[in-house]
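Is this the right way to post structure tokens for a design question? Let me know if I should format differently. Anyway, here goes:
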């Protein structure tokens, strides 16, 4: 089961058939869900969490019958080879005027309050006010957006006179053109159980700055580029330095790229999952 919230629908069939069950946990467990879904005699043979942070936030919810050897941190990811090798045409660029002295700063997420996109907007304003030539791009929207939150963000951009400096480009089905159109990536999310957009940005060799964001710090795994949640001034200082010394930070990004390909690429995850299956069988 890749999504643990579907588990109650199949646990009875799995129990009747006597088959091993591996369940991927996709967000923080709370509200007594796990104690109900995983109770005896429907205990999964293996629970896979996407990060240590997610596991620790969920641990108190696990029923006593789920033993420690049945719990593992598996990670998350995607086919990064396919993502980064997709063909690119100039017309696909989200900001076609990229170039010159302008540094393009991007963020990508579902548009919901815990993503704190308002911090990204105000970050761009602070960097512009300090005299740097930057342009901000916000990717995300559609069915993954909180409509009231989107209206608030649009109003914030307008009130700060940033309409020509920040673009909200909506939901994207293909992410590669977005990552190829920016110079650095910023994550302002307070809580992620993995941090897929950070992983993707790293795969493109982009310098990344982020709030610790729950599990984001585990994906990035470099204290130089991680700021405690909501410490906005520290984030501004970090990104300002990245804008001023972009080439230097790109050198660090090469190491970050190697990290995500070694740990979160689909072939690596497939081998890890195969080992889990063999262990149970």
């Amino acid at each position: 089961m890749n999504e643990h919230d579907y588990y109650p629908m199949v646990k009875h069939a799995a129990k009747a058939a006597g088959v091993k069950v591996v369940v991927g946990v996709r967000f923080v467990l709370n509200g007594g869900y796990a104690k109900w879904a995983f109770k005896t005699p429907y205990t999964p043979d293996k629970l896979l969490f996407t990060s240590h942070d997610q596991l620790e936030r969920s641990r108190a919810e696990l029923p006593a019958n789920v033993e420690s050897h049945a719990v593992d941190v598996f990670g998350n990811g995607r086919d990064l080879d396919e993502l980064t090798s997709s063909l690119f045409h100039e017309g696909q660029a989200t900001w076609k005027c990229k170039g010159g002295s302008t540094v393009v700063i991007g963020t990508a997420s579902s548009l919901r309050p815990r993503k704190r996109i308002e911090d990204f907007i105000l970050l761009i304003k602070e960097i512009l006010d300090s005299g740097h030539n930057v342009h901000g791009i916000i990717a995300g929207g559609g069915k993954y957006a909180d409509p009231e939150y989107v209206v608030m963000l649009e109003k914030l951009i307008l009130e700060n006179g940033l309409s020509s400096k920040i673009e909200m480009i909506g939901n994207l089905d293909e992410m590669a053109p977005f990552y190829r159109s920016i110079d650095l990536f910023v994550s302002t999310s307070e809580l992620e159980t993995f941090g897929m957009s950070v992983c993707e940005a790293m795969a493109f060799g982009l310098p990344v700055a982020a709030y610790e964001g729950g599990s984001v710090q585990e994906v990035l795994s470099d204290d130089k580029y991680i700021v405690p949640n909501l410490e906005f001034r520290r984030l501004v200082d970090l990104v300002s330095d990245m804008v001023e010394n972009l080439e230097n930070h790109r050198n660090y990004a090469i190491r970050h790229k190697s990290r995500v390909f070694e740990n979160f690429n689909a072939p690596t995850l497939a081998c890890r999952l195969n080992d889990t299956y063999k262990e149970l069988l």
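Format looks fine. Someone answered above. Worth noting: DSSP finds twelve helices and nine strands in the chain. The chain has a mean pLDDT of 91.
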